[in-house]
Amino acid sequence: MKLVSFGPPGEELPGVLLDNDRILNIYSASTGNINTMRQLLALGAPGLAQVSEWIANGPEDRFVIPAKGVRLGPPVTNPTKVVGVGLNYHSHTDEQSARLPKKPLLFSMSTTCLSGDGDPILYPIDDENVDYEAELAFVIGAPAFRVNPEDWQAYVAGYTIVNDVSGRDAQFSDRKWFRGKSFDTFCPMGPYIATRDEIPDPHKLSISAHLNGEVRQDGNTKDLIFKIPELLAFVTQNITFLPGDVIATGTPGGVGIFCDPPACMKVGDEIKITVQGIGTLTNRVCERVGLTPSVYPHPRG
Fold this sequence. Notes:
This protein is of the alpha+beta class.
Protein backbone atom coordinates (compact mmCIF):
# COMPACT_ATOMS: atom_id res chain seq x y z
CA MET A 1 0.00 0.00 0.00
CA LYS A 2 0.93 3.63 -0.49
CA LEU A 3 0.04 5.40 2.75
CA VAL A 4 -0.47 9.17 2.54
CA SER A 5 -1.41 12.09 4.72
CA PHE A 6 -3.48 14.41 2.55
CA GLY A 7 -5.00 17.84 2.93
CA PRO A 8 -3.95 21.37 3.90
CA PRO A 9 -0.89 21.82 6.13
CA GLY A 10 -1.79 21.02 9.72
CA GLU A 11 -5.12 19.48 8.73
CA GLU A 12 -3.95 16.30 6.98
CA LEU A 13 -5.95 13.08 7.17
CA PRO A 14 -4.60 9.55 6.69
CA GLY A 15 -5.27 7.77 3.43
CA VAL A 16 -4.13 5.25 0.85
CA LEU A 17 -3.21 6.22 -2.69
CA LEU A 18 -5.18 3.92 -5.02
CA ASP A 19 -4.01 3.45 -8.61
CA ASN A 20 -2.26 6.86 -8.39
CA ASP A 21 -5.51 8.69 -9.14
CA ARG A 22 -7.73 8.09 -6.11
CA ILE A 23 -7.29 8.31 -2.35
CA LEU A 24 -9.07 6.17 0.23
CA ASN A 25 -9.93 8.43 3.17
CA ILE A 26 -9.04 6.28 6.18
CA TYR A 27 -10.50 8.85 8.56
CA SER A 28 -13.92 8.51 6.93
CA ALA A 29 -13.69 4.75 6.42
CA SER A 30 -12.91 4.32 10.11
CA THR A 31 -15.85 6.58 11.05
CA GLY A 32 -13.45 9.10 12.55
CA ASN A 33 -11.55 6.68 14.76
CA ILE A 34 -8.23 7.05 12.89
CA ASN A 35 -7.35 10.70 12.26
CA THR A 36 -3.57 10.61 11.76
CA MET A 37 -1.07 8.25 10.16
CA ARG A 38 0.58 7.78 13.53
CA GLN A 39 -2.71 6.47 14.95
CA LEU A 40 -2.99 4.00 12.09
CA LEU A 41 0.56 2.75 12.55
CA ALA A 42 0.02 2.40 16.30
CA LEU A 43 -2.65 -0.21 15.52
CA GLY A 44 0.14 -2.39 14.11
CA ALA A 45 -0.39 -5.23 11.66
CA PRO A 46 -4.11 -5.58 12.48
CA GLY A 47 -4.70 -1.94 11.53
CA LEU A 48 -2.95 -2.28 8.17
CA ALA A 49 -4.78 -5.57 7.59
CA GLN A 50 -8.10 -3.80 8.13
CA VAL A 51 -7.18 -1.14 5.58
CA SER A 52 -6.15 -3.86 3.11
CA GLU A 53 -9.52 -5.52 3.63
CA TRP A 54 -11.36 -2.26 2.90
CA ILE A 55 -9.42 -1.97 -0.35
CA ALA A 56 -9.89 -5.62 -1.32
CA ASN A 57 -13.65 -5.44 -0.76
CA GLY A 58 -13.94 -2.26 -2.82
CA PRO A 59 -14.27 0.82 -0.63
CA GLU A 60 -17.53 2.73 -0.73
CA ASP A 61 -17.49 5.69 -3.10
CA ARG A 62 -18.12 8.10 -0.24
CA PHE A 63 -14.77 7.13 1.27
CA VAL A 64 -12.77 7.73 -1.94
CA ILE A 65 -11.72 11.08 -3.43
CA PRO A 66 -9.86 11.97 -6.65
CA ALA A 67 -6.14 12.40 -6.05
CA LYS A 68 -5.67 15.11 -8.68
CA GLY A 69 -4.96 18.46 -7.10
CA VAL A 70 -4.84 17.08 -3.56
CA ARG A 71 -1.83 18.09 -1.48
CA LEU A 72 0.22 15.28 0.07
CA GLY A 73 1.82 16.37 3.33
CA PRO A 74 4.58 14.53 5.17
CA PRO A 75 3.26 10.95 5.46
CA VAL A 76 3.71 11.10 9.24
CA THR A 77 2.71 14.53 10.50
CA ASN A 78 3.41 14.09 14.20
CA PRO A 79 6.28 11.66 14.85
CA THR A 80 7.84 11.70 18.29
CA LYS A 81 11.29 11.46 16.68
CA VAL A 82 12.98 12.18 13.37
CA VAL A 83 16.53 10.82 13.37
CA GLY A 84 19.21 11.06 10.72
CA VAL A 85 22.37 9.05 10.12
CA GLY A 86 25.54 10.85 9.06
CA LEU A 87 28.30 9.47 6.84
CA ASN A 88 26.43 6.29 5.99
CA TYR A 89 27.35 5.87 2.30
CA HIS A 90 30.83 4.93 1.15
CA SER A 91 30.54 7.46 -1.69
CA HIS A 92 29.66 10.27 0.76
CA THR A 93 32.61 9.54 3.02
CA ASP A 94 34.88 9.36 -0.05
CA GLU A 95 33.84 12.78 -1.40
CA GLN A 96 34.92 14.48 1.84
CA SER A 97 37.93 12.23 2.52
CA ALA A 98 36.39 11.16 5.82
CA ARG A 99 37.16 8.03 7.78
CA LEU A 100 34.55 5.30 7.81
CA PRO A 101 32.59 5.54 11.06
CA LYS A 102 32.98 2.64 13.46
CA LYS A 103 29.35 2.96 14.54
CA PRO A 104 26.35 4.90 13.24
CA LEU A 105 26.56 8.67 13.65
CA LEU A 106 23.12 9.80 14.76
CA PHE A 107 21.59 13.25 14.90
CA SER A 108 18.07 14.45 15.65
CA MET A 109 15.90 16.85 13.73
CA SER A 110 13.11 18.94 15.17
CA THR A 111 9.63 17.74 14.22
CA THR A 112 8.82 21.35 13.29
CA CYS A 113 11.07 20.99 10.21
CA LEU A 114 8.66 18.65 8.42
CA SER A 115 7.11 19.48 5.05
CA GLY A 116 5.40 17.57 2.26
CA ASP A 117 5.70 16.85 -1.43
CA GLY A 118 5.40 20.08 -3.40
CA ASP A 119 5.78 22.28 -0.33
CA PRO A 120 8.35 25.10 -0.45
CA ILE A 121 11.74 24.83 1.19
CA LEU A 122 11.97 28.18 2.93
CA TYR A 123 15.36 29.81 2.54
CA PRO A 124 16.68 30.77 6.01
CA ILE A 125 18.38 33.95 7.11
CA ASP A 126 22.13 33.93 7.87
CA ASP A 127 22.88 30.72 5.92
CA GLU A 128 24.18 30.95 2.37
CA ASN A 129 24.83 27.24 1.81
CA VAL A 130 21.51 25.39 1.81
CA ASP A 131 22.16 21.85 0.63
CA TYR A 132 20.12 18.87 -0.55
CA GLU A 133 20.57 15.26 0.65
CA ALA A 134 18.65 12.43 -1.00
CA GLU A 135 17.74 9.77 1.55
CA LEU A 136 15.76 6.58 2.00
CA ALA A 137 13.92 6.65 5.31
CA PHE A 138 12.11 3.90 7.18
CA VAL A 139 9.10 4.36 9.41
CA ILE A 140 8.65 2.50 12.68
CA GLY A 141 5.53 0.35 12.88
CA ALA A 142 5.72 -1.15 16.40
CA PRO A 143 7.23 -0.05 19.72
CA ALA A 144 10.93 -0.88 19.37
CA PHE A 145 13.45 -1.37 22.16
CA ARG A 146 16.64 -3.44 21.95
CA VAL A 147 15.66 -4.88 18.63
CA ASN A 148 17.45 -8.03 17.51
CA PRO A 149 18.85 -7.31 14.02
CA GLU A 150 17.35 -10.58 12.78
CA ASP A 151 13.87 -9.35 13.76
CA TRP A 152 14.12 -5.89 12.19
CA GLN A 153 11.29 -6.33 9.70
CA ALA A 154 8.73 -6.77 12.48
CA TYR A 155 9.37 -3.16 13.53
CA VAL A 156 9.33 -1.46 10.11
CA ALA A 157 5.99 -0.30 8.72
CA GLY A 158 7.45 0.89 5.43
CA TYR A 159 9.70 3.28 3.58
CA THR A 160 9.57 6.86 2.38
CA ILE A 161 11.82 9.56 0.90
CA VAL A 162 13.45 12.33 2.90
CA ASN A 163 15.34 15.32 1.58
CA ASP A 164 17.63 16.04 4.54
CA VAL A 165 18.02 19.72 3.68
CA SER A 166 21.04 21.14 5.48
CA GLY A 167 22.05 24.65 6.44
CA ARG A 168 25.77 24.07 6.08
CA ASP A 169 26.88 27.37 7.62
CA ALA A 170 25.01 26.56 10.84
CA GLN A 171 26.08 22.93 10.75
CA PHE A 172 29.76 23.68 10.34
CA SER A 173 29.94 26.71 12.64
CA ASP A 174 28.11 24.91 15.46
CA ARG A 175 30.10 21.72 14.98
CA LYS A 176 26.79 20.09 15.79
CA TRP A 177 24.14 19.09 13.30
CA PHE A 178 20.82 19.79 15.06
CA ARG A 179 20.32 23.47 14.19
CA GLY A 180 21.39 23.28 10.56
CA LYS A 181 19.13 20.27 10.00
CA SER A 182 16.11 21.63 11.87
CA PHE A 183 15.15 24.90 10.17
CA ASP A 184 11.44 25.04 9.30
CA THR A 185 10.62 23.04 6.11
CA PHE A 186 14.08 21.43 6.06
CA CYS A 187 12.73 17.88 6.15
CA PRO A 188 10.55 17.36 3.07
CA MET A 189 9.14 13.85 3.29
CA GLY A 190 6.97 11.71 1.02
CA PRO A 191 5.16 11.53 -1.22
CA TYR A 192 3.93 8.45 0.66
CA ILE A 193 5.00 5.47 2.76
CA ALA A 194 5.45 2.32 0.68
CA THR A 195 4.53 -0.48 3.07
CA ARG A 196 7.18 -3.09 3.66
CA ASP A 197 5.56 -5.65 1.35
CA GLU A 198 6.05 -3.29 -1.61
CA ILE A 199 9.85 -3.10 -1.17
CA PRO A 200 11.30 -6.65 -1.12
CA ASP A 201 14.85 -5.46 -0.39
CA PRO A 202 15.47 -1.85 0.76
CA HIS A 203 19.21 -2.38 0.30
CA LYS A 204 19.05 -2.60 -3.52
CA LEU A 205 17.32 0.65 -4.47
CA SER A 206 18.58 3.36 -6.80
CA ILE A 207 18.50 6.84 -5.26
CA SER A 208 19.07 10.16 -6.99
CA ALA A 209 18.79 13.92 -6.70
CA HIS A 210 18.11 16.29 -9.60
CA LEU A 211 18.62 20.01 -9.09
CA ASN A 212 16.89 22.03 -11.83
CA GLY A 213 16.97 18.88 -13.95
CA GLU A 214 20.70 18.25 -13.47
CA VAL A 215 21.74 14.95 -11.90
CA ARG A 216 23.59 15.74 -8.68
CA GLN A 217 23.37 12.45 -6.79
CA ASP A 218 23.15 9.01 -8.37
CA GLY A 219 23.61 6.16 -5.93
CA ASN A 220 22.19 2.91 -4.63
CA THR A 221 21.28 1.80 -1.13
CA LYS A 222 23.58 -1.20 -1.52
CA ASP A 223 26.33 1.38 -0.80
CA LEU A 224 25.05 1.91 2.76
CA ILE A 225 27.71 1.38 5.41
CA PHE A 226 25.23 0.49 8.16
CA LYS A 227 22.11 -1.18 6.83
CA ILE A 228 18.66 -1.04 8.37
CA PRO A 229 18.97 -4.06 10.71
CA GLU A 230 22.17 -2.62 12.21
CA LEU A 231 20.71 0.87 12.44
CA LEU A 232 17.54 -0.29 14.15
CA ALA A 233 19.44 -2.40 16.66
CA PHE A 234 21.80 0.51 17.42
CA VAL A 235 19.23 3.28 17.82
CA THR A 236 16.96 1.14 20.03
CA GLN A 237 19.71 -0.09 22.32
CA ASN A 238 18.73 2.43 25.01
CA ILE A 239 15.94 4.46 23.37
CA THR A 240 12.40 3.33 22.69
CA PHE A 241 11.14 4.18 19.21
CA LEU A 242 7.40 4.46 18.67
CA PRO A 243 5.09 3.85 15.70
CA GLY A 244 5.41 6.74 13.28
CA ASP A 245 8.98 7.63 14.22
CA VAL A 246 11.20 8.20 11.18
CA ILE A 247 14.84 7.24 10.63
CA ALA A 248 16.59 8.64 7.53
CA THR A 249 19.43 6.34 6.51
CA GLY A 250 21.96 8.80 5.07
CA THR A 251 22.87 10.25 1.69
CA PRO A 252 25.12 9.15 -1.19
CA GLY A 253 27.89 11.27 -2.65
CA GLY A 254 27.16 14.34 -4.75
CA VAL A 255 25.90 16.88 -2.23
CA GLY A 256 26.34 20.52 -3.20
CA ILE A 257 28.78 21.63 -0.53
CA PHE A 258 31.45 19.20 -1.72
CA CYS A 259 31.25 20.21 -5.38
CA ASP A 260 34.20 22.23 -6.68
CA PRO A 261 33.21 25.01 -6.33
CA PRO A 262 30.33 24.41 -3.90
CA ALA A 263 26.96 24.36 -5.66
CA CYS A 264 24.17 24.45 -3.11
CA MET A 265 20.53 25.43 -3.61
CA LYS A 266 19.31 28.95 -4.23
CA VAL A 267 15.90 30.62 -4.16
CA GLY A 268 13.95 29.50 -7.22
CA ASP A 269 15.68 26.13 -7.56
CA GLU A 270 13.69 22.91 -7.90
CA ILE A 271 15.02 19.76 -6.22
CA LYS A 272 13.72 16.28 -7.01
CA ILE A 273 14.64 13.23 -4.96
CA THR A 274 13.81 9.81 -6.44
CA VAL A 275 14.04 6.42 -4.74
CA GLN A 276 13.30 3.26 -6.72
CA GLY A 277 9.97 1.70 -5.76
CA ILE A 278 8.79 4.75 -3.82
CA GLY A 279 8.62 7.62 -6.29
CA THR A 280 9.78 11.21 -6.45
CA LEU A 281 9.71 13.97 -3.84
CA THR A 282 9.68 17.45 -5.42
CA ASN A 283 10.18 20.81 -3.72
CA ARG A 284 11.12 24.32 -4.74
CA VAL A 285 13.31 26.69 -2.73
CA CYS A 286 11.45 29.89 -1.86
CA GLU A 287 12.10 33.10 0.02
CA ARG A 288 10.47 33.08 3.45
CA VAL A 289 7.82 35.78 3.77
CA GLY A 290 6.27 36.66 7.11
CA LEU A 291 6.60 35.13 10.55
CA THR A 292 4.17 32.22 10.35
CA PRO A 293 5.52 29.33 12.45
CA SER A 294 5.58 25.69 11.37
CA VAL A 295 2.28 23.81 11.65
CA TYR A 296 4.09 20.62 12.65
CA PRO A 297 3.92 18.42 14.57
CA HIS A 298 0.31 17.80 13.62
CA PRO A 299 -2.06 19.24 16.25
CA ARG A 300 -4.12 16.05 16.35
CA GLY A 301 -2.91 13.14 18.49
